[in-house]
UniProtKB/TrEMBL annotation:
Residues 552-580 have a biased composition (Basic and acidic residues). Residues 508-517 have a biased composition (Polar residues). Pfam families: Cytochrom_B_N_2 (PF13631). Its main location: membrane. This is Cytochrome bc1 complex cytochrome b subunit. GO terms for biological process: respiratory electron transport chain. It catalyses: a quinol + 2 Fe(III)-[cytochrome c](out) = a quinone + 2 Fe(II)-[cytochrome c](out) + 2 H(+)(out). Residues 265-459 form the Cytochrome b/b6 C-terminal region profile domain.
Length: 588
């Protein structure tokens, strides 16, 4: 007997679940979390999508200015290598001994073990003086290359989204590098470096209310104490190098993750990278360049004397050598101290020494602080939330370029102020006259250089505008039958025209309606009112790019001559964060 067929029954449907709403805590962290994910990919990492940042075929652009960061990296490697050697021989002790080493001019003098061991490295350890000078020159090159590298990134806008975090890391590295250099300069306990240490602790004392406590805590008592050199030594060889090494690693990882920036040009867009693969091209170049940097540092150390501490003698708090000058990267702080007027407050039993605190403490923090905060100020003014992988030409951001030149002017004026006594004695000029001139110059010269730089950038914009529409001067003068003279222009290549007009244009904010059609105040109106004058000041004088109609009319006027651009044998990496190499040659 056949079994009855099973009847189909409808499965019960689950009740619709309402959309989950974020709680107040999650809503608060939603914005910062998205900001961090856009710049670090941390959201993808937490969900298990690990980005491939170690792709050896990753494409990197090729430009000489990118070597500035490599010089900083290789100088740091040289510092680590030579620092290990010096650590084996240096004695970080302030215990007093009588010197009986091979340098006869100092025999019999009382000095610290730190100073005596440095003399021993210089005169008794085989190759010790060469290693000391390599270490010192590498430190100077490390800071100089970091500062120059930061200037290159600043003037080309390489700090924009998604590289704000990497820019802040770079500013922190600059601050740590200056601190590390000062500590290494100070631990030999010679007279010149001791004067600098005395100035720094005078600055610490100027910190209102807590300065004396901080000095006593660090020194373990009164200045100079007997633990200053050991504590600076541990900071110099352990803590700060470890932090620098960690930040350098994060810096390099973010460079791999974000793709390297590239200069504008034909075939270069925000979605690709035109250049050569990391392996084998850049690995070979980087390896060779490391030995070039190492060789130049060794050559400088072998031929150019630096920091001859045996000439200065051991540190004595009662003595100050004439014409004392710090290393150049601290020179701007020395100049700020010398130029600052004598401003002091006397409140009750306390003295507030603004003449020391402002130039020494705030000045030391102001340089990396201003560098680190600038990208966020510019982003607030522009309102730009796009990703930028193609760099700006400095002329296309005249205010940014002018701000950078004004900052360099301030730095140079302070550097000159730090050497006002040397200038006075060598050029027979009044020291007071130099100081007074520089006090006025610190306010006037940055304004003048700002205005001149901005006008130069706008002039270059106008020249580029004319170059796109009318071409370049041919250098050939024609005379007409009527006796007039003219110079025909040669049309520029398509690649050059693309390079000139590739940049993004920002428009100043204009006054819009304060309310919507229902009479309700528009959101963001207060923010726009605050930004409006800054956008007019920042972008109001920019020369607009030629429109397509203007270019077409200019080509028609020139007779339709069109010069096609060439191409280079490069690789192109495309995709937002892709590591795929899609071909050789430019894409149009």
């Amino acid at each position: 007997m056949a079994k009855p067929a099973k009847t189909a029954t409808e499965a019960p449907q689950a009740a619709e679940q309402p959309d989950q709403q974020l709680g107040p805590v999650m809503k608060f962290f939603k914005g910062p979390a998205k900001w961090a994910d856009d710049r670090t990919g941390v959201g993808g990492i937490m969900s298990g999508r690990i980005p491939n940042i170690f792709n050896l075929r990753k494409v990197f652009p090729d430009h000489w200015s990118f070597m500035l960061g490599e010089i900083a990296l290789y100088s740091f490697v040289v510092l680590l290598l030579t620092g290990v050697f010096l650590t084996l021989w240096f004695k970080p002790s302030m215990g007093e001994i009588e010197y009986n080493g091979s340098y006869q001019l100092l025999r019999g003098l009382p000095m610290s073990e730190a100073y005596a061991s440095t003399l021993n490295i210089s005169f008794d350890v085989r190759g010790g003086l060469l290693i000391r000078q390599i270490h010192h020159w590498a430190a100077l090159l490390f800071i100089a290359s970091m500062l120059t590298h930061s200037m290159r990134i600043f003037f080309t806008g390489g700090f924009r989204k998604p590289r704000e975090i990497n820019w802040v890391i770079g500013a922190t590295l600059l601050f740590l590098g200056m601190t590390e250099g000062f500590l290494g300069y100070s631990i030999p306990d010679d007279l010149l470096s001791g004067v600098g240490v005395r100035i720094i602790f005078g600055a610490v004392l100027s910190i209102p209310l807590v300065g004396t406590y901080l000095e006593t805590w660090f020194l373990g008592g009164e200045y100079p104490g007997d633990i200053l050199v050991p504590r600076m030594y541990m900071l110099h060889i352990l803590l700060i190098p470890a932090v620098i090494l960690a930040l350098v690693a994060v810096h390099l990882v973010l460079i791999f993750y974000h793709k390297h920036t590239q200069f504008p040009g034909q075939g270069r867009t925000e979605k690709n990278v035109v250049g050569y693969p990391f392996f084998p091209v850049y690995t070979a170049k980087a390896g060779g360049f490391f030995f070039i940097v190492f060789g130049v540092i060794v050559l400088m150390a072998a031929l150019i004397q630096i920091n001859p501490i045996w000439v200065y003698g051991p540190y004595n708090p009662a003595e100050v050598s004439a014409g004392s000058q710090p290393d150049w990267y601290i020179g701007y702080l020395e100049g700020a101290l010398r130029l600052m007027p004598n401003w002091e407050w006397h409140i009750g039993p306390t003295t507030w020494s603004w003449n020391i605190f402002i130039p020494a403490i705030l000045g030391f923090v102001a340089l990396p602080g201003a560098i680190g905060v600038y990208p966020f100020l510019e982003k607030w003014v522009s309102g730009d939330d796009l990703e930028h992988h193609v760099l700006d030409r400095p002329r296309n951001a005249p205010n940014r370029t002018a701000i950078g030149v004004a900052g360099i002017t301030v730095y140079v004026v302070l550097m000159i102020g730090g050497a006002n006594d040397i200038i006075a004695t060598h050029f027979h000029i009044s020291l007071n006259a130099i100081t007074l001139t520089l006090r006025w110059g610190i306010f006037i010269l940055p304004i003048i250089t700002f205005m001149i730089t901005k006008r130069i950038c706008i002039g270059l914009q106008r020249a580029a505008y004319d170059r796109v529409l009318h071409g370049s001067e041919s250098g050939v003068i024609h005379r007409s039958p009527a006796g007039g003279y003219s110079e025909p222009h040669t049309p520029i290549t398509q690649g050059e025209a693309y390079t000139i007009t590739q940049h993004h244009e920002y428009q100043p904010l204009t006054s819009g309606p304060q309310t919507d059609e229902n009479g309700v105040a528009r959101r963001g109106t207060a923010k726009e009112r605050a930004r409006r004058p800054f956008t007019r000041w920042y972008y109001g004088h920019n020369v607009p790019k030629p429109t397509a109609a203007e270019v077409e009319e200019a080509r028609h006027h020139q007779g339709g001559h069109e010069v096609e651009g060439g191409h280079d044998d490069h690789a192109i990496e495309s995709g937002e964060h892709s590591d795929e190499q899609v071909g050789a040659g430019h894409s149009d």
